[in-house]
Design brief:
Helices cover about 50% and strands about 10% of the residues. It is built from ten helices and six strands.
Length: about 280
């Protein structure tokens, strides 16, 4: 199953080492968020006997997966089994025997990226989600790290990845942008919520005019995008819209979301409204 998908070009911009690192970052985030839930005591009275042990078991399983991800990444960056075994406290041969299946599954997923489901009609990606769709993963992880870990670093995750995408924000302002695709029927909802986040009054935006404007646009032609500005009391958002040729989906690019909280809101909004896009 080698037919191309819209994610293939995004994935090709990254080395296998970078994709492996991205998977490690994604699973580390998941483990962190799950572990945080175990710190809460408020609902202990409603937990059955042994309940907290079950939660700890989940964490240990996630940690085992994370360890396998780390080994895959280390192998991709050229670490030897001896290097890996030294940190595990086991001989190189033992480390190799234990983790070779994980490394082989990773490699096989690049050769056979999909399998068919039981119906024989739906394709199931074999790569971990973060490696299959790195563009979305990088955006979400950068936002998460910005909010939780590095208040002044917008690219705490993406900055260290080996990729063909430039990261000089002075000469490539597009790195500040948040983009996505939404179904045309969701455009009104997108505009209403984006305007609310910016602090616009109800009469600040000609909603009907904007929703009709993308009809003659084409996202493959930079000159045929429609632009509008949502200037509110809190923020000024620059929104560009264009019809994605051949379907009922709009490409959306948002600039001006300067605070991490607003970027997270816009990113979540685009992701939610893209749920019905095909």
């Amino acid at each position: 199953m080698t037919d191309p998908t819209p994610y293939d070009d995004d994935r090709s911009a990254y080395s296998r080492q970078a994709l492996a690192r991205l998977v490690l970052s994604d699973h580390a985030k998941g483990l962190s968020e799950t572990a945080c839930q175990l710190t809460v005591t408020r609902y202990d009275a409603y937990t059955g006997p042994g309940g907290r042990v079950s939660e700890a078991v989940v964490l240990t399983r996630m940690a085992e997966r994370l360890l396998a991800d780390a080994v895959v990444h280390e192998r991709e960056r050229g670490s030897s089994w001896q290097d890996i075994g030294a940190y595990l406290g086991v001989p190189a041969a033992e480390a190799e025997e234990r983790f070779t299946p994980a490394v082989e599954r990773w490699s096989t997923a690049f050769d056979v990226p999909y399998r068919l489901d039981a119906t024989g009609r739906k394709r199931i990606p074999q790569l971990p989600t973060a490696a299959y769709d790195p563009r979305q993963a990088v955006r979400h992880l950068d936002l998460w790290a910005h909010l939780r870990l590095f208040a002044d670093d917008r690219h705490a995750v993406s900055a260290g990845l080996d990729t063909d995408t430039p990261r000089d924000e002075a000469t490539h302002p597009e790195l500040h942008l948040i983009d996505g695709r939404i179904h045309r029927e969701n455009l009104g909802t997108f505009l209403d919520l984006a305007a609310r986040y910016a602090g616009c009054h109800d009469d600040d935006t000609d909603r009907d005019a904007v929703t009709q404007a993308p009809q003659a646009t084409d996202d493959e032609d930079p000159k045929r995008w429609y632009s509008c500005q949502l200037a509110g009391a809190f923020h000024t958002l620059d929104v560009r819209l264009a019809n994605a040729v051949g379907n009922d989906v709009l490409s959306v690019v948002v600039g001006g979301a300067r605070s991490p909280e607003l970027r997270l809101r816009m990113d979540t909004l685009l992701a939610a409204l893209a749920a019905t896009a095909s």
